[in-house]
């Protein structure tokens, strides 16, 4: 069968569900299948997944997406993988059985240990090598926790009997029945064990965290044929040829392939990632330096910042206080008033992420008067999402000395035209909404397809990438500056609210 009559299968293994999407040569979606899986919260602040359930849900949605399109293995040109990052799995090299549940990126059990590392002065060295802020978010301290807390595991790890992997590694191990033990370089760059300058696992960090190097997978690029899939999931071998962490895959799926291009995902949180070209830019503003992708021998670096509560602020207005019947109603509500009525909503419901990193900040609605209505509060919530994104953009601008020319967007909340327009107004740059919104899966598909010649090169992808709408700044600059000034006053009121009193 001709390559162009086939489809690319994208695996999008996320934090709450496993998805599979088939794309055609035009980069359009043919079918989607999705299955949620169980979240385990064994203690406050702990979050775990069952690695076997990740695999079962993933393999079943692959089958389902193919069945919906009525295609067999012969119709699949190649497979690309995008995955939740940092989540840590340790398994037995012989049997393939996990020795413990997957510890999810959100899990905070190693926070105290990270504080301790910072107090001992390791943070600067860790940032210099890995580009990361010392935090429980990343894999290193999670691996160490498993080695120290699961009985008999450290001895077995030292004997070389165990494998560590992020979710990409786990999936490719399962897809190849243990033949390939690899991770792609973007996932490696989120472990806090990988030196992003030398592109090697870092001995000094492995010693610091007491992790035997035999546990670590081989690091590979994001677009090359790694292996062929094995039975029983597939009867014929299909090349697995693309891999990247979800945010990096989305950056690629948005075709932010030139230096200075940026994408923002507006989901539960907001995730911004900016292509910095062949230079790793170490942040002075609490952003993360990471690898965007590696194609052939060329590495593209990125700068990243996350806002913890984005669309979740709207979810809270709906479910928490019943102000909205559904999330989409927020647009009409916000537009029903001509301005915010001087109300500001800082959605620090779980603290503030980049660039503040203030775990003690709390949600604050300020400026309420007798004239304040539900519309003002809804509008303030949507504006609060945009202001937070702008704060990260400002941090990026301070690190780079320029502001990106446009922001490409994805995620559930970009359906909201008010939010998009307000973002353009506040950030003084166009906001670009693409046609295909499944940018994470599309990025995985692109990376896989490029490796096997399904698509010739990035230029071919640029030709087919299309946009739905561009939002241009309309607000006067002085008004935007005035609003931002008030917003920062509101942020100051929200900060450190929940900090324990010292006396
Ligand atoms: P995730 O992948 O993080 O689960 P999604 O990308 O599916 O999130 O986006 C869902 C989020 O977007 C929810 O928090 C929801 O409140 C918000 N959302 C969805 N539609 C709208 C809308 N029209 N306006 C504002 N927020 C919205």
What does the secondary structure layout of this molecule look like, with pairings?
Elements: E1 7-13, E2 17-23, E3 29-36, E4 48-49, H1 51-69, E5 76-83, E6 89-92, E7 102-103, H2 111-119, H3 123-130, H4 139-149, H5 153-158, E8 162-165, H6 167-175, E9 182-184, H7 185-188, E10 194-195, E11 200-201, H8 203-208, E12 218-220, E13 223-228, E14 239-245, H9 246-253, E15 262-266, E16 270-277, E17 288-295, E18 298-307, H10 311-320, H11 329-335, E19 344-346, E20 364-366, H12 374-400, E21 407-410, H13 417-427, E22 431-434, H14 439-452, H15 458-464, E23 467-471, H16 477-494
Parallel strand pairs: 1-5, 5-14, 9-12, 15-21, 21-22
Antiparallel strand pairs: 1-2, 2-3, 4-7, 6-8, 10-11, 13-14, 15-16, 16-18, 17-18, 19-20, 22-23
Bound molecules: adenosine-5'-diphosphate.
Adenosine-5'-diphosphate is lined by residues 267-268, 311-312, 314-315, 327-328, 330-331, 411-413, 415-416.
Strand content: 15-25%
Structural Rg:
23 Å
SS-based structural class?
alpha+beta
Helix proportion range: 25-40%
Q: Enumerate the spans where pLDDT stays under 50 for 5 or more consecutive residues.
A: none
Number of E-type strands: 23
Strand order across the largest sheet: 17-18-16-15-21-22-23
Shape, please? globular
Associated small molecules: adenosine-5'-diphosphate
* Integer average pLDDT: 94
How widely separated are the two ends? 74 Å
Query: What can be said about the biggest beta sheet?
Result: 7 strands, mixed
Give the helix tally.
16
